[in-house]
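User: Let's play a game. I give you a shape written as tokens, and you guess the letters that built it. Ready? Here's round one.
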């Protein structure tokens, strides 16, 4: 058990170069998973990871500020988009901050932070994201208004991706802002009234 919650501990080696430790725990109201991967020859690191896992403390009643460790800020004061929720490191902004169980045609903004690979520039990150969109169903892709820009002193790259998602005309706006060791990926998703919604997304993204 972890803090009294039922738990399952899994140790496995899927290939000869790496070992994996997984811990899943929770109750009828939540489930949490911790996963660690380390070189199969590094027993010392494996022992340290196992010792660290034994110190886990979880309080489901604790209210956590999702922005406590965020690497960005957005000025919502003049925007129709407000923070809605965060999940798995992704911050979601919706009109009025409304949390729909299933967003359909409503415009959305998502913000994620990824480690910066010194071998991949902002354009390369954007290309990987577009490729990922295609894997998730983007068809008839057309890229427009590609530019390198500056956002509050940080180098940035933006592109508008037009196409169809699940057969519906869609626009995905990408803005990648890079710092020394991180890249902030802002993605605006629009399925109607492209011009108006894109302008509002850009206004918030560039704050």
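Assistant: Ready! My guess for every position:
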């Amino acid at each position: 058990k972890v803090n009294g919650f039922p738990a399952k501990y899994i140790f496995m080696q899927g290939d000869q170069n790496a070992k994996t430790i997984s811990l899943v725990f929770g109750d009828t109201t939540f489930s949490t998973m911790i996963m660690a991967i380390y070189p199969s020859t590094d027993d010392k690191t494996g022992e340290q990871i196992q010792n660290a896992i034994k110190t886990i403390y979880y309080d489901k009643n604790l209210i956590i500020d999702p922005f406590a460790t965020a690497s960005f800020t957005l000025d919502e004061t003049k925007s129709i988009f407000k923070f809605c929720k965060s999940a798995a490191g992704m911050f979601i902004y919706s009109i009025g901050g409304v949390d729909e169980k299933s967003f359909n045609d409503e415009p959305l903004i998502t913000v994620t932070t990824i480690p910066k690979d010194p071998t991949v520039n902002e354009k390369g990150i954007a290309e990987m994201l577009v490729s990922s969109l295609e894997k998730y169903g983007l068809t008839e892709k057309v890229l427009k208004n590609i530019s390198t820009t500056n956002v509050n002193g940080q180098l940035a790259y933006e592109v508008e991706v037009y196409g169809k998602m699940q057969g519906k005309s869609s626009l995905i706006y990408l803005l990648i802002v890079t710092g020394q060791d991180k890249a902030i990926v802002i993605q605006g998703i629009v399925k109607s009234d492209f011009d108006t919604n894109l302008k509002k997304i850009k206004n918030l993204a560039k704050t």
